[in-house]
């Protein structure tokens, strides 16, 4: 009994440590966003403030058009996610069920592209953006985000499609469904948790991406949240606006938290199904 109790205590201590270690940076940013400037710069450091303010949040929307940055990030992320799923789902289904010639080579190529660091594509994408005159255009972000997320989308959805019983498709053919109708009306509704899980992963990548957004977009009214938060300035050249930066971080993270909480059940279903099938 003592050994089991000790193991339980150690297990809970490890769980609490991991939770605190993981959430500490987010909690620090949250607390900093509500601190007054005097407490932020005070030494020794004040970890838990006794004075709170909302000035850092109001400053974001009064000094700069932060709503515009939120809408820009949402627009780019939603469209790139929709394109990734819209292109990746049929491609994954074709690889899982239609068995095209050379599918092993195709899968190997997709796997290599998935493992390829996206930052190494930067110079090539820059040349393409310049050649197509896509600078300061939403397409300069939507197209690369879609292309980078597409291989992972195909691999994840293909693994789910392969585990579905083929009797479903045989029954659909008997009922007169063609391949496209089978996919859209039968297969995709059954794999909705997988679609939601994959879509959230692609959305998070597009929402948080920084390097491409910083380089391809220079117009103020087209910038996304990561770039806008990084370029926040203080009242003087030598001042670092820790409070507004922390507030921008919280605002930029909040939609992702709400998204995950809203689709929590679907995400758990998708991960559980993937673990069982794996």
Q: What's a concise summary of this model?
A:
Helix content is 76%, strand content 0%.
Walkthrough of the structure:
- The chain has 278 residues and is mostly helical.
- It is built from 14 helices and no strands.
- It has helices at residues 2-34, 37-40, 55-63, 66-98, 103-115, 122-131, 139-163, 167-174, 179-190, 192-208, 211-216, 225-230, 242-262, 264-277.
- Helix 1 packs across helix 13 (242-262) and helix 8 (167-174) crosses helix 9 (179-190).
- The chain is globular, with a radius of gyration of 23 Å.
- The model has no long low-confidence stretch (mean pLDDT 84).
**How much helical structure, as a percent, in the residues?**
over 70%
Low-pLDDT regions: none
**Radius of gyration in whole Å, from Cα?**
23 Å
What letter string, H or E per element, gives the SSE order? HHHHHHHHHHHHHH
Number of strands: 0
The number of distinct helices, counting runs of at least 4 residues, comes to 14
- What's the main sheet like? none
Category from helices, strands and their pairing: mainly alpha
The rounded distance between the terminal residues' Cα atoms is 35 Å
Strand content: under 5%
Shape: globular
Calculate the mean pLDDT score and round it: 84
Relevant terms:
single chain, mainly alpha, 14 helices, 0% strand, globular
Write the layout of secondary structure elements.
Layout: H1 2-34, H2 37-40, H3 55-63, H4 66-98, H5 103-115, H6 122-131, H7 139-163, H8 167-174, H9 179-190, H10 192-208, H11 211-216, H12 225-230, H13 242-262, H14 264-277
Helix pairs in contact: 1-13, 3-13, 4-7, 4-10, 5-7, 7-10, 8-9, 10-14
